[in-house]
Design a protein that fits this description.
mainly alpha, Tetracycline Repressor, domain 2, about 0% strand
Length: about 200
């Protein structure tokens, strides 16, 4: 039993360390893009030495895949929490999604928000495994949008997702300033006017 307990403890420590590395990489990938994720820097941010990297990952690409999945999951969870908070305010699921995705706070911090907006332009240039993981994130975003517009044509979700991503990218290019915030506000207004409907309300 003692050996089993020691083994479980060792495995638990390894899993915790693995999660710290992935968490650091997920933040870095949104903040700096794929090219800005260096193994040494990620390990340093996680409080670990460079030499321990290959005990957890076969390659840098393997780290990028897990980091992208983590960033996508955290973005989805944040959108879900926002929808729950907004449910009592009478906002529809669609309105909640738009307000959260195009929130001004995403201008100030590049490592928050959707990884598709942070990485979209770089996705086609990646290795096959990373590109495949990127495609899954795009499909996931479209699926999240579609769930808020159940009565709309399937293609509408793709159009809305494109507008969300493009608006956030352009606003970030303008900067965390009045001009960037006005672009986000204009995009929010346009989307609400065209697509928001009481039938999509969160219950």
């Amino acid at each position: 039993m003692k050996l089993e307990s020691m083994s479980r403890t060792a495995n638990s420590r390894k899993e915790d360390t693995h999660e710290r590395i992935v968490g650091a990489a997920a933040r870095a990938i949104c903040r700096q893009g794929y090219g800005g994720v260096g193994v040494a820097d990620v390990m340093k941010e996680a409080g670990l030495t460079h030499g321990g990297f290959y005990a957890h990952f076969d390659s840098r690409d393997a780290l990028l895949v897990e980091a992208l999945e983590r960033a996508g999951r955290e973005s989805f969870e944040a959108l879900t929490r926002a929808a729950q908070r907004n449910a009592g305010k009478g906002l529809s699921a669609f309105a909640s999604l738009v307000e959260s995705y195009l929130a001004d706070r995403h201008l100030a911090s590049l490592d928050t928000g959707c990884p598709v907006a942070a990485l979209g332009c770089d996705m086609p240039r990646q290795s096959p495994p990373v590109r495949e993981a990127s495609v899954l994130r795009v499909r996931r975003l479209i699926a999240v949008v579609r769930a808020t517009l159940p009565d709309a044509p399937a293609t509408t979700a793709s159009v809305v997702a494109s507008t969300l991503v493009g608006s956030l990218q352009l606003a970030r290019a303008l900067g965390n300033n009045a001009e960037g915030r006005e672009l986000l506000a204009a995009a929010r207004r346009a989307l609400m006017q065209q697509y928001d409907h009481p039938a999509t309300a969160v219950h």
